[in-house]
Amino acid sequence: MNRVLEPEVMDKHENVQAYAHADFSTVNQMFVDRLVKHYSSYLNKVLDIGCGPADIPIRLVRALPKTHVTAVDASKNMIESAKAAVKKANFDNQISLVQAYLPGLPFELHSFDGIISNSILHHLPEPILFWKEIMKLGKSGAVVCVMDLLRPDSPQRAKEIVEANAKDEHPLLKEDFYNSLLAAFTLGEVKEQLKSSGLQKLKAEIISDRHWLVSGNLR
Ligand SMILES: C[S@@+](CC[C@H](N)C(=O)[O-])C[C@H]1O[C@@H](n2cnc3c(N)ncnc32)[C@H](O)[C@@H]1O
């Protein structure tokens, strides 16, 4: 099945609300647990690209109280939702929220010890720009941990994945999830992107029926 692009920035109020209220706790906690288990000593100054409602930054600073996360998203409504969640969790000192668009994020070159990201890549028409941005913003030896959806073989399989994992979620969330699966990359495509960007040393693996993970250190 070929990739079918979906809208890039998630800024419609109803979709943002549906996303912010959906339950991603299992997957998000798994992502944070892996980070903490393998890379906690690197995670002082972390950038989260496409942070959405900031559930992952909140889980990360809860686990690592000395970590500071700069969490960035192009969507004004997502950043508003993230601000409310960060304030509620009382992590204003450890999480800075920035509304900005990739490519061209407004940060000093090579200034982050860790760059994390979940589920933005499938939104991007030009995925190489994402990997190049990581190379620009990460320090030498910085940790990279990027997770996203895996494109299934068929629209029918995408429907099955939505029903198996989001049966009781809001219809808008289910529709976005389905469209995201169709827009996602295969592991082979991700490996090609890493190779073209000079990041082939990072490990790319499938970690669930619907996710791949890229992790490792920059040179
Ligand atoms: C599916 S959400 C993932 C949110 C969050 N990382 C999570 O784990 O739940 C993808 C986010 O990426 C943002 N996004 C898409 N394209 C972007 C771009 N070019 N620059 C910055 N943010 C972008 C969207 O606005 C959306 O909030």
Descriptive account of the structure:
The structure is a single chain. The longest helix has 15 residues, at 25-39. This protein has a domain at 34-150 and 185-217: 3-Layer(aba) Sandwich (Rossmann fold). A seven-stranded mixed sheet has the order 3-2-1-4-5-7-6, sandwiched between helices. It starts with 12 loop residues before the first helix and ends with a strand. Helix 1 (13-21) crosses helix 7 (171-183) and helix 2 (25-39) packs across helix 3 (55-63). The chain contains eight helices and seven strands, in the order H-H-E-H-E-H-E-E-H-E-H-H-H-E-E. The protein is globular. By secondary structure, the chain is an alpha/beta fold. Strand 6 and strand 7 (211-217) form a beta hairpin. Helix content is 42%, strand content 21%. It has helices at 13-21, 25-39, 55-63, 76-89, 127-137, 155-166, 171-183, 187-196, and strands at 45-49, 68-73, 95-99, 112-118, 138-149, 203-206, 211-217. It binds S-adenosylmethionine. Residues 8-10, 24, 50-52, 55-56, 73-75, 78, 101-102, 118-120, 123 line the site of S-adenosylmethionine (SAM). S-adenosylmethionine is lined by residues 8-10, 24, 50-52, 55-56, 73-75, 78, 101-102, 118-120, 123.
